[in-house]
Specification:
heterodimer; A: about 110 residues; 6-stranded mixed beta sheet; globular; B: about 120 residues; mainly beta; 7-stranded mixed beta sheet; 1 helix; about 50% strand
């Protein structure tokens, strides 16, 4: 059974710092991995989608890597800003099943201090 | 940018009452999903819907739950007799095809917060 874990559970950094969020999954048989942002009481905003054949994806100050064989992904945020404060979720789409459901991690709560 | 729209944003209902949560997926998407997030817990898969029928459902999605796509644009989740433990944020999501989320990932709505009292 696929399990997704995110470390750390919470992180507080000063503005301007570069930071890395970690995601690990137990079964490497996945189609893709997606990183989301969730603001308090709000929906999920897709940040980056990495296909299983890809190693990384970049969007602006965000860079996500995927090492499928070791079951790990990282989300790198450069030059963090207070507006980056949110919960970051990773989710994998495992092989099997009829319609590629997502299995989510518990999230990392990020606070960027001005 | 196209959005998945959910209504209402917040619903309070009495235990035992029926509720219908509504979603308008992105118009050219073919795969539709409901997920839920109990406060402080992981986002969990409930059900997927493709080609006008349920494709997959989780153990959570028991006989109290049903989904419909009544008119080609709306996608609804009905809970027949709500329980206290149904209190959660419910998210609708959609993905385009062919291949759906395998290639395109998901777009989520902003959620409906359901409170059962």
């Amino acid at each position: 059974k696929q399990e997704v874990t995110q470390i750390p559970a919470a992180l507080s950094v000063p503005e301007g710092e570069n930071l890395v969020l970690n995601c690990s999954f137990t079964d490497s048989a996945i189609y893709n991995l997606q990183w989301f942002r969730q603001d308090p009481g709000k929906g999920l905003t897709s940040l980056l989608l990495i296909q299983s054949s890809q190693r990384e994806q970049t969007s602006g100050r965000l860079n996500a890597s995927l090492d499928k064989s070791s079951g790990r992904s990282t989300l790198y945020i450069a030059a963090s800003q207070p507006g980056d404060s949110a919960t970051y979720l990773c989710a994998v789409s495992p092989y099997g099943g009829a319609t590629n459901k997502l299995i989510f991690g518990t999230g990392t709560l990020l606070a960027v201090q001005p | 940018e196209p959005e998945v729209t959910q209504t209402p944003s917040h619903q309070v209902t009495q235990m035992g009452q029926e509720v219908i949560l509504r979603c308008v997926p992105i118009s050219n998407h073919l795969y539709f999903y409901w997920y839920r997030q109990i406060l402080g817990q992981k986002v969990e898969f409930l059900v997927s819907f493709y080609n006008n029928e349920i494709s997959e459902k989780s153990e959570i999605f028991d006989d109290q739950f049903s989904v419909e796509r009544p008119d080609g644009s709306n996608f609804t989740l009905k809970i027949r007799s709500t329980k206290l433990e149904d209190s959660a944020m419910y998210f609708c999501a959609s993905s385009e095809g062919p291949g759906g989320p395998r290639y395109y990932g998901y777009t989520f709505g902003s959620g409906t917060r359901l409170t059962v009292v």
